[in-house]
Amino acid sequence: MSVPARKESTAGMPADKRVHAADAALGKAGAGSARKKAATGTRPSPATAKRNDPGAFGQIVSGAPLGGFAAVQSIREGYPAAILKAASRFFGVTDARIQAIAQVPASTASRLEKSAARIDAAATERLYRMGTVTRMAIDVFEDEAAAVEWMRQPNRAFDNTAPLDLMDTEPGAVSVRQVLNAIATGGVA
User: Fold this and answer.
1) Compositional bias (Basic and acidic residues) at which positions (predicted)?
2) Is pLDDT above 60 for 172?
3) Residue-wise burial string across 28-49, b where 16 or more C-beta atoms lie within 10 A, e elsewhere
């Protein structure tokens, strides 16, 4: 199985520069998507949202993965609060759904975003987990749109729960990774 080429790799960057690259991506976020949403009154599709606004969440999914100490350092520093909206745009779901998975109350998310603050390490880790598992799904399905749809939809393998909704805990993510491994190897999930 071939692995799709990744765009805008940050693999050679030190961890602090990758965090700042994610911050910069969030600084540019939203202009095209916000105009489209205002003009049509609808939420852009996940693929369109990603093209118009890759944002920091898109960078987590399609950039070089942070691993080891770089991931730990990034999680400890926390992601900018705007990543919550970037993740909802990426998946084409409501902000409330991503906030529930990240366990960040709506009022807290709004306050942190307005002050350009960061979410805490626990919420950052949930978003990091969501991104890395989504990247695995994209690699398995070899199609971003199919992977995003698979993550969003209820699945019998998870007692009719969407894989995305299991990203709030590591045991949930382990279950999703196991099913993705079974799909990748042709086994039964």
Assistant:
1) 1-21
2) yes
3) ebbeebeebeeeeeebbebeeb
Query: What per-residue confidence (pLDDT) applies to 7?
Result: 37
120: left (phi over 0), alpha (psi -120 to 50) or beta: beta
Cβ-contact 130, 87 below 8 angstroms: yes
Question: Taking 90 as the threshold, does the pLDDT of residue 143 lie above it?
Answer: yes
**What's residue 69's pLDDT?**
86
- In SS3 terms, 111-179 reads as HHHHCCCECCHHHHHHHHHHHHHHHHHHHHHCCHHHHHHHHHCCEHHHCCECHHHHCCCHHHHHHHHHH
pLDDT value, residue 55: 67
Give residue-wise pLDDT tens across range 21-59.
444 444 433 333 333 333 333 344 444 434 334 467 887
Sign of the four-CA dihedral 39, 41, 44, 50: positive
pTM: 0.71
Tokens of 7: 């765009």
As a whole number of angstroms, the distance between CA 68 and CA 180 comes to 22
